[in-house]
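Quick one: structure for this chain?
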Amino acid sequence: MNPFPHSHEHSPDWPFPVTAAGRRTSTATTISSTPSTSTSTRSSVSASLSFASEPPFSPSLTPSTYPSPSASIAPPAGVSPASRPRDREGSLNDEVARLPLNPAVTVSFVRSARLFKLRYTTITIRKDFTGALKCLELGGAVGQQTAFLHSFNTTRLPVPHLEHPKTSSEPLSPASLRVSFLDEQTVQTGATVFATQLSYTFEDWTDCVHFQELILASRIVFIAGIAEAKSKGRGEECISQNLRILRQDATGKLVILFFANSLRRGGKRYVSIPVNCIDSVTPGKNSRRPVVLQLQPNFDHLAQMKTLSILFLDADDQKAFCEFLAANNR
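Got it. Here's what it folds into:
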């Protein structure tokens, strides 16, 4: 009996044809997961993905130096060497990290006007010899002969978009664990290649976090939903989004990241603010008043923004944000 009865639509074009191809081996890291709990709600809007300026963090992966634990979000229980199945996307110089899932992830996409929902139990993240993200390989699905490959343009940093704002006071829901990519993505299985909108729905918060961290090559050291963010120079930046603080694996630099969904059409993009570019932090007098960040004009978009006022959805999250910046903005 198939343990994943809804692993895919019963469509004549699925699974796609299997083709033989040259295969090579490469080194790999396995990341084991442990369950965790947290929260999230509300919806967001989709838009094209681009950066206001060169992002201050690198798209490279460093799974061999996966970060150590923190109080806010637990890292993997362990990192250990692992042999890796051969696959046609492989290269002798590739570096690979494998994320086993607890228990699975559902990948959703539309092809030929049909909605597919496929369940997988492992995600392999591959980078090339330059450190650029190359592809995700999904495996462990019952009854499928080929891996599902999600490929990236190595000249552009993909940002996993957590669709629903997270708060510390509300329970998790399936929507809370859905990660998408705002641009169309390239998918390959067998000899079939096509572009589509993809979303990944996890069943465990820890898996959801680790997936984002491996793609961004950064630890997520803080995440919380914000009601709105406004800048002095550009006006309303976003409503009902997540604010993440990333610690880059390679350098340890901290970067604030949020999706500016309120900017005019064509300007909707992810905005990154290095924590060391914050001149001062003014907490709100109460939970109904925003936190105000005075920004240094180190990048063009920071010079345009001047200040950033952030109102969080949860008062405890707002307090934790101010405490984190006080401890780390030195």
